[in-house]
What we know:
Low-confidence stretches: none
Order of helices and strands: EEEEHEEEEEEE
Strand content: 35-45%
Shape: globular
Largest sheet: 6 strands, antiparallel
Distance between the termini: 20 Å
Number of domains: 1
Number of helices: 1
Strand order of the largest sheet: 1-7-11-10-8-9
Radius of gyration: 13 Å
Structural class: mainly beta
Number of strands: 11
Amino acid sequence: MSDLSITAASVVLVSGPTFQASAGEAITAGAAVYTSATNTVKLAQTDGTLAEAAATGIALNGGGTGQPIVVAGDGATVSLVGATTAVGVLYYVSNAAGGICPIGDIGSADKVTALGYATSVAGAFTIKIVNTQQVLA
């Protein structure tokens, strides 16, 4: 398997909580993000630091460094148009910065952060963040 292929221009909040922060780097809608020590949002990834793996949600819009980013947080439901998902499958932060993948793509030395589960095959996705802050091995 591989990371979900998301149409950034079509990412939509269906329901649930959001928060706004400044981008700490260039971000695309549909990317998994974490909140950095400087209170900016950056692209989450499992093969970096524990902080980088600790996702706080999915970006609802894109922007460059310093621009406002709205993030769908824990408990939100997001439509990730373009993504082909499997109902009930859990998806995680991937090795690719901002990527979202199924568990089978997580390596044995990666940190594990569950982002949520698919609620339809057309990309409807409910966020239920579980940061385990550990490696699989």
